[in-house]
Amino acid sequence: MIYLIRHGETEWSLSGRHTGRTDLPLTPHGEEQARDLAPWLDTVGFTDVLTSPRQRARKTCELAGLEKMARVETDLAEWDYGDYEGRTSREICAERPGWAIFHDGCPHGETPVQVSARADRLIADLLPLAGNIALFSHGQFSQALAARWIGLAVVEAEHFSFGTAALGILGYSPDHPDIRVISVWNARSLSP
Question: Where are the domains of the chain?
Protein backbone atom coordinates (compact mmCIF):
# COMPACT_ATOMS: atom_id res chain seq x y z
CA MET A 1 0.00 0.00 0.00
CA ILE A 2 1.08 3.55 -0.65
CA TYR A 3 0.32 6.04 2.13
CA LEU A 4 0.29 9.49 0.54
CA ILE A 5 0.60 12.30 3.10
CA ARG A 6 0.31 16.02 2.40
CA HIS A 7 2.52 18.33 4.44
CA GLY A 8 1.09 20.36 7.32
CA GLU A 9 -0.15 23.92 7.08
CA THR A 10 2.09 26.77 5.90
CA GLU A 11 1.31 30.49 5.74
CA TRP A 12 0.66 30.18 2.02
CA SER A 13 -1.50 27.05 2.23
CA LEU A 14 -3.55 28.89 4.86
CA SER A 15 -4.06 31.86 2.53
CA GLY A 16 -4.57 29.76 -0.62
CA ARG A 17 -1.39 30.94 -2.35
CA HIS A 18 0.17 28.51 -4.82
CA THR A 19 3.40 27.22 -3.29
CA GLY A 20 5.65 25.25 -5.60
CA ARG A 21 9.34 26.14 -5.46
CA THR A 22 9.07 28.59 -2.55
CA ASP A 23 10.45 26.68 0.42
CA LEU A 24 8.21 27.75 3.30
CA PRO A 25 8.27 26.33 6.82
CA LEU A 26 5.25 24.87 8.57
CA THR A 27 3.21 27.17 10.79
CA PRO A 28 2.98 26.19 14.48
CA HIS A 29 -0.43 24.69 13.65
CA GLY A 30 1.16 22.83 10.73
CA GLU A 31 3.76 21.38 13.10
CA GLU A 32 0.97 20.28 15.43
CA GLN A 33 -0.84 18.65 12.48
CA ALA A 34 2.35 16.78 11.56
CA ARG A 35 2.87 15.54 15.13
CA ASP A 36 -0.75 14.35 15.17
CA LEU A 37 0.08 12.00 12.28
CA ALA A 38 2.68 10.10 14.32
CA PRO A 39 0.42 7.88 16.47
CA TRP A 40 -1.44 6.38 13.56
CA LEU A 41 1.46 6.20 11.10
CA ASP A 42 3.45 4.45 13.83
CA THR A 43 1.04 1.51 13.63
CA VAL A 44 1.62 0.84 9.93
CA GLY A 45 5.17 -0.49 9.56
CA PHE A 46 6.75 1.09 6.50
CA THR A 47 9.35 -0.53 4.26
CA ASP A 48 10.09 2.73 2.39
CA VAL A 49 9.59 6.41 3.18
CA LEU A 50 10.03 9.05 0.48
CA THR A 51 9.67 12.79 0.85
CA SER A 52 9.58 15.83 -1.37
CA PRO A 53 12.73 17.94 -1.14
CA ARG A 54 10.72 20.92 0.17
CA GLN A 55 11.18 21.64 3.88
CA ARG A 56 7.43 21.63 4.59
CA ALA A 57 7.21 17.97 3.48
CA ARG A 58 10.50 16.96 5.12
CA LYS A 59 9.47 18.58 8.43
CA THR A 60 6.07 16.86 8.30
CA CYS A 61 7.87 13.55 7.80
CA GLU A 62 10.20 14.31 10.72
CA LEU A 63 7.42 15.34 13.11
CA ALA A 64 5.38 12.30 12.07
CA GLY A 65 8.31 10.18 13.27
CA LEU A 66 9.50 8.74 9.95
CA GLU A 67 12.56 10.87 9.18
CA LYS A 68 15.09 8.12 10.02
CA MET A 69 13.83 5.99 7.12
CA ALA A 70 13.18 8.87 4.72
CA ARG A 71 14.95 9.64 1.51
CA VAL A 72 14.32 12.61 -0.74
CA GLU A 73 12.50 11.97 -4.01
CA THR A 74 12.49 14.99 -6.32
CA ASP A 75 9.46 13.71 -8.24
CA LEU A 76 7.33 14.30 -5.09
CA ALA A 77 7.85 18.09 -5.32
CA GLU A 78 4.80 20.28 -5.81
CA TRP A 79 3.68 21.53 -9.20
CA ASP A 80 6.00 24.23 -10.56
CA TYR A 81 3.65 27.22 -10.68
CA GLY A 82 6.03 29.42 -12.69
CA ASP A 83 4.56 32.93 -13.01
CA TYR A 84 1.70 31.96 -10.68
CA GLU A 85 3.94 31.15 -7.71
CA GLY A 86 2.65 32.90 -4.59
CA ARG A 87 -0.66 33.90 -6.17
CA THR A 88 -4.15 32.64 -5.36
CA SER A 89 -6.47 31.04 -7.90
CA ARG A 90 -8.87 33.95 -7.39
CA GLU A 91 -6.15 36.46 -8.35
CA ILE A 92 -5.15 34.43 -11.40
CA CYS A 93 -8.76 34.01 -12.55
CA ALA A 94 -9.33 37.77 -12.27
CA GLU A 95 -6.69 38.17 -15.01
CA ARG A 96 -7.37 34.91 -16.83
CA PRO A 97 -11.05 33.94 -16.45
CA GLY A 98 -11.68 30.21 -16.44
CA TRP A 99 -8.08 29.29 -15.58
CA ALA A 100 -7.69 25.96 -13.78
CA ILE A 101 -4.34 24.36 -12.88
CA PHE A 102 -5.23 20.83 -13.97
CA HIS A 103 -6.46 22.07 -17.37
CA ASP A 104 -4.07 24.90 -18.11
CA GLY A 105 -0.87 24.57 -16.12
CA CYS A 106 1.21 27.67 -15.51
CA PRO A 107 3.20 30.00 -17.76
CA HIS A 108 6.93 29.41 -17.23
CA GLY A 109 6.00 26.50 -14.95
CA GLU A 110 4.77 22.97 -15.48
CA THR A 111 2.02 21.86 -17.81
CA PRO A 112 -0.48 19.12 -17.00
CA VAL A 113 1.38 16.86 -19.47
CA GLN A 114 4.67 17.40 -17.60
CA VAL A 115 3.08 16.73 -14.20
CA SER A 116 1.42 13.61 -15.59
CA ALA A 117 4.77 12.35 -16.89
CA ARG A 118 6.39 13.01 -13.50
CA ALA A 119 3.59 11.15 -11.69
CA ASP A 120 3.87 8.23 -14.12
CA ARG A 121 7.64 8.07 -13.62
CA LEU A 122 7.16 7.98 -9.85
CA ILE A 123 4.51 5.26 -10.10
CA ALA A 124 6.83 3.17 -12.27
CA ASP A 125 9.52 3.50 -9.56
CA LEU A 126 7.04 2.55 -6.80
CA LEU A 127 5.49 -0.53 -8.45
CA PRO A 128 8.45 -2.88 -7.82
CA LEU A 129 8.63 -1.93 -4.13
CA ALA A 130 7.09 -4.31 -1.61
CA GLY A 131 5.35 -3.48 1.65
CA ASN A 132 3.89 -0.21 2.89
CA ILE A 133 5.36 2.95 1.42
CA ALA A 134 4.93 6.46 2.89
CA LEU A 135 5.09 9.42 0.52
CA PHE A 136 5.25 12.97 1.92
CA SER A 137 4.25 15.44 -0.75
CA HIS A 138 1.98 18.38 -1.57
CA GLY A 139 -1.63 19.10 -2.41
CA GLN A 140 -1.91 19.38 -6.16
CA PHE A 141 0.87 16.97 -7.02
CA SER A 142 -0.74 14.39 -4.72
CA GLN A 143 -4.05 14.92 -6.49
CA ALA A 144 -2.33 14.33 -9.84
CA LEU A 145 -0.55 11.24 -8.50
CA ALA A 146 -3.83 9.75 -7.26
CA ALA A 147 -5.52 10.37 -10.61
CA ARG A 148 -2.67 8.73 -12.50
CA TRP A 149 -2.56 5.81 -10.01
CA ILE A 150 -6.08 4.81 -11.08
CA GLY A 151 -5.48 5.56 -14.74
CA LEU A 152 -7.26 8.90 -15.02
CA ALA A 153 -5.95 11.90 -16.92
CA VAL A 154 -4.40 14.62 -14.75
CA VAL A 155 -7.32 16.92 -15.55
CA GLU A 156 -9.52 14.64 -13.41
CA ALA A 157 -7.32 15.39 -10.37
CA GLU A 158 -9.35 18.55 -9.83
CA HIS A 159 -11.97 16.28 -8.22
CA PHE A 160 -9.60 15.07 -5.45
CA SER A 161 -9.39 17.84 -2.87
CA PHE A 162 -6.53 17.12 -0.45
CA GLY A 163 -6.17 19.12 2.77
CA THR A 164 -3.06 19.84 4.80
CA ALA A 165 -1.76 16.87 6.81
CA ALA A 166 -4.30 14.66 5.05
CA LEU A 167 -3.77 11.02 4.12
CA GLY A 168 -4.63 9.00 1.05
CA ILE A 169 -4.05 5.28 0.64
CA LEU A 170 -3.38 3.98 -2.85
CA GLY A 171 -3.62 0.25 -3.26
CA TYR A 172 -5.19 -2.59 -5.18
CA SER A 173 -8.67 -4.10 -5.36
CA PRO A 174 -8.94 -7.10 -3.00
CA ASP A 175 -10.92 -9.00 -5.64
CA HIS A 176 -8.79 -7.96 -8.62
CA PRO A 177 -5.18 -7.38 -7.54
CA ASP A 178 -4.28 -5.98 -10.96
CA ILE A 179 -6.73 -3.07 -10.53
CA ARG A 180 -5.36 -0.02 -8.73
CA VAL A 181 -7.73 1.79 -6.35
CA ILE A 182 -7.85 4.69 -3.93
CA SER A 183 -8.75 3.00 -0.64
CA VAL A 184 -8.76 6.13 1.54
CA TRP A 185 -8.73 9.80 0.56
CA ASN A 186 -8.36 13.09 2.44
CA ALA A 187 -8.45 11.35 5.83
CA ARG A 188 -7.30 12.91 9.07
CA SER A 189 -6.77 9.60 10.89
CA LEU A 190 -6.74 5.87 10.23
CA SER A 191 -9.56 5.12 12.64
CA PRO A 192 -13.05 4.54 11.16
Answer: 2-187
Is 138 one of the catalytic residues? no
* 28-87 residue pLDDT tens: 999 999 999 999 899 999 999 999 999 999 999 999 999 999 999 999 999 999 999 999
User: Residue 73 catalytic?
Assistant: no
- Catalytic residue, from 9, 78, 85, 110: name it: 78
Indicate the CATH number for domain 2-187.
3.40.50.1240
The b/e string for 48-85 (b: 16+ C-beta within 10 A; e otherwise) is bbbbbebbbbbbbbbbbebeeebeebebbbbbbbbebb
Which entry of 7, 85, 110, 138 is annotated as an active-site residue? Answer: 7
pLDDT score, position 40 = 87
